[in-house]
Structure formats: structure tokens, C-alpha cells
Description:
The chain is mostly helical. Helix content is 75%, strand content 2%. It is a multi-pass membrane protein.
Amino acid sequence: MKEFLRHLKEFLKDHVRDYAMFIALFAIMAVFAALSGGDFLSPVNISNLVDQTGYIAVLAIGETLIIVIRHIDLSVGFLSGFLGAIAAILMQFYHFSALSAIIIVLGLGTLAGLLNGSLVTYLRIPAFVATLAGWLAYRGALLLATKGSGTIIITNKTFNAIGNGFIPDLPFINNILPNYHKLTLLVGIVAAVLIVYFSLKNRAQQIKRGFDVLPLDIFLIELLFIDALLLYITFILAAHRGISWTLVIMIITTVIYSFITNRTVLGRHIYAVGGNPEAAALSGINVKKITLIVFASMGFLSGLSGILFASRLQSATTTAGTLFELYAIAGAYIGGVSAAGGVGKVINSLIGAFVMSTLTNGMNLLGVDISLQYIILGIVLAAAVIFDVATRSKER
Length: 396
């Protein structure tokens, strides 16, 4: 027992930055569950919480990479809203298919990101100023796009299913667990088994290569915790309507960006540029190219965010995108990204976005006044940054 406690203490000390936001998220959810009499953890509310987080989560992932390379992008909120309006206009007024509109919007978002990156890279305009100009321009563009009707109702069922639809169930086993979405249960169980398999395989490979690994007791507890959480969420979602397409998009986006940042040369170069741009340039890394790629990625994700938001509302409005950029940046900082650059994980920023959405969802459920909501969100963001500074100073 003493050995286990020693291992646990060392683990928490070495990984405090990585797990702090997970602990915070669980604590917040527990508080809201208690105050709401359990309503917060109801299948319907958890499903809504996931869908409400989608358009902010993809922006938070993009902002993570932007902040990692020591920049900021303030334009993403109204760019997201404007691109959602473009999708609505293409489908409603010009009769584009949902797929065509989505491709065009994602392409326009990428070009907008390249424009921001070019202003920062080649004209040496500070990212704050360049993207603030974009914030103003896209705000105006959104007002122009929706000027005629104020709200553009989207009637394309395929497009609207992205933000409101769920994956289909298995029709041939309706008699088994009739109150649960069977395909969701199957996906969750398979995912839990795969996590165990690949975790054990990866640990064995690391030991074989002589790398340091977690003590076996801590490793097993961590693995058990992850699988238990995954299965719990799976059963909650399955008790409602299953896995939403928004969640599918979030998971795919997170997996792709996690792979890029952790397993590719591009990812290593992004963190190298964020850690020390001058040293990265001297080592042969094309800093300008990396900056353009990261900003282009941010623009692409802004388009994706606009699609998720417009499809969820089934409309484009004049206020779409309001405060999106601030929630995304807050999510990234709560997730542990460092303002000094070079530090930040995609999965942690996803959790940070969930922290922001959970606070908003829970406070709305409890009927907290909107003025107090903003104050509480500000306090949480300030606490996250203070925690980041404190842990970094200890590491030094």
C-alpha cells in the first residue's frame, strides 16, 4: 500500500498539468449533478451538452496550435458565423447540395486562414491586429449576408442532420435492450477493448526499447479509469438516442489533430517553432511555412465550426459567431496550453472546451443570472491561467 501511494504521489506530481482539467471537469459535473437533483446527468442533457460543445471544441483545437506557435486568432468567431451564412445562402438561394456547400465553405475557411497567416508571416503584422481586423470584417460580412431577412432558415435535411442527427441503430436486434441504442453500446464496448489492447501493446514496446513507463499499479488504475469513464458515457448516450453526428465529427477531428501533433514531423515542427522560433529556423525548419499551415488549419476549422453551428440551429443568424473566439481561446487555456508557446495538447483543449460548455449548461439548468455566468466564467479562466503559471514556475 505504501508503494502504491508513493507511485500515485509521483504520478500526480509529474502529470499535474495533464490531469488537472479532467479533475476540474469531474468536480464541476458533480456539483451541478448535486445542485440539479441529478437532472444535469440525465441522458437528454448530456447528449445536448455534447452537441452544444461541438462548434466550440473544433475552434479550441485550432486555437491550441495557434497559441502553441505564439500567436492568437480573434477572427474565428465571426468567420465561423459568416461561413455558416454562406452555406445557408448556397443551399437556400442557389440550390447547392449539402456536400457542395460544405466543400466550398471549408475551402473558403482555409483561404481566410491563409490570408491571416500571410499578413502575419510576410507583412509582419502582429497576429492580434491582423485577426482583429478580420473579426471586424467578418462581422460586417455576416451582417451583409443576412441583411435581407435577418435569419436564413435552412431546409436541407442532410445538412441539418449534421448538428441534430444521430448514427442509425441496429434494426435486427430490437428485442435486446429495447431502451438503449445498440450500435452506440457496441461502439463503446469495442472502443474500450481497443484502448486496453493498444495500451498494453504500447507499454510492452516501450519496456522492450528500454523506455521509462508508469508503474504497473498506476498504469492499470489509469486504464481502468479511462475505460470506466468511456463505458459510463456510452451508456448515458445510448439511453437517449445514441452517438450524434456532431460527436462523431468531434472525435474524428480530435484523433486527426492528435495524430498530427504527436506522430508526425509537422507536429514536431509546430512545437519546435512554438518553443523557440529562432532556434527552429536555425535548425532548418521553415517557420513561415509552419505559420501558414497552422493559420490555414484554423480557417478550415472555423468553416467546420460554422457548419456545426448553422446545422444545429437549422439557420444562419446575424449573431452567429458571437463570443465563439473567446470561448475557444478560454477552452485552450483551461486545457493547459501555455501563452509562452510550445506547450499544449489537443485532447486537453477538447476537455477545456467541455469545461466551458459544462459551466454554461449547468448554470442555465440552475437558472443562474447571465451576469453572474460571465463573472464565473471569467474567474474560471483566470484560475486556469494562474494554475498554468504556477505549475510552469515549479517545473523550472
